[in-house]
Write a structure and sequence with these properties.
Blueprint: H1 3-12, H2 14-33, H3 45-60, H4 74-82, H5 92-109, H6 118-132, H7 141-158, H8 160-169, H9 178-183, H10 185-194, E1 199-203, E2 210-214, E3 223-226, H11 229-232, H12 234-251, H13 257-288, H14 296-324, H15 331-335, E4 361-363, E5 369-371, H16 372-375, E6 392-394
Antiparallel strand pairs: 1-2, 2-3, 4-5, 4-6
Helix pairs in contact: 2-3, 2-12, 2-14, 5-6, 6-7, 7-12, 10-13, 12-13, 13-14
Amino acid sequence: MSLETWVTNLVRRGRATVLLALLTTFAGVALLIDQPKGTVLEWFALPLLTLGGAIFAWVVWPRRANAKPASVSVASRLLARLTFQGRVVPLFPAIGVAIVVADLAYNLLLSPTPALQTEDTIVLFAAASLLGYNVVPSRFARERDFVLLFFLCLNAILVLPLLTARLLYVDFQQSVDVYSWVALAPETGAVLTLLGISNSLQTVAGSTAPGLTFTPEHLGIRVTVVITAACSGIYSFGIFASAFVAFVLTDFELPTRRMWLLLGLGLMTAYGANILRMVLIVLIGYYTDTAQTDLQNMLVAHSYGGWVIFLGWIALFWSGVFRLLPRDEPAKARTAFSLPGEHRESICGICRSPLTPIVPAIRCQCSAHFHRDCATMSEMCPKCGSPWVTITPQTIDGI
């Protein structure tokens, strides 16, 4: 397949291309935050981040300086409510500065170490998105909302539960290993028990993380796997779950049942993939390790296979869901703002807004209709990939 064909396919499948860019970008982010130590995977962090960011920028970059602003999304409506119809938005820089000061003060006064940890990095990224929110041009409003929602979701998943646990335990030195105790180790042990593998959870001397004890089939002695935050995959889960939520909210224009179904399935699958990842690592050690291998098979699976399994499952699920459940707005929503004389099913194939006799429209040779201004934002028809030289002027009355 030639490069031109690849480019044409990417243009025709805009949402799929954005999804590919998100997977690639946040695979790099996950490797930067939660690096698999001692493996070659950590060297892929920057290349994946750069490649994914480049694809994403190429897809969303306006083709004209006066490109038509993006339509209102669920994310923009949600942010409007959270900011009291935008009245709080001018205060975003001040809020960002306050978050930075609060994080530094927390580290100095309450945290066991003043050094910046992973959670501090997540908080500071959210503060940076608030600081830069007002300087992003309006034509990038959807991308700006995506970044802000991503970091807000990431803090809601990874930071706020940890702070809540520290308040409940009245222990500000409580480590992130609490995630393993609550959301991974018991569930992993339960799945292994269902598969007929006897195991138990216990505390490990010198560690705050839980230990999963089992006896490999060919080893004959009991071994304990310490499930620390680094091997729990909680950071990878948080990154991909946050990216999925932000993507769905900014991609849909109306809060449909389809959207809520996607959100629910996406979150459950990301969490389930993380448990599946840990179960497979233990299974490899249980069935393949012997006295000669000395648990090396399980360690290799942990270093390489676990992260690849998680990313592969997430990519497979996302691509399948978006193929089976394409976006569409309900008929009621499409007709709620219809104008007199407007055909109910006449909507632009790009912005999904109604076509009316007032706004000039064009028709491609594949019979798809678009606003003339929307069509000028790209060089090809997003439905069939034909160059725009094949389009003919078309009015609503002739549809």
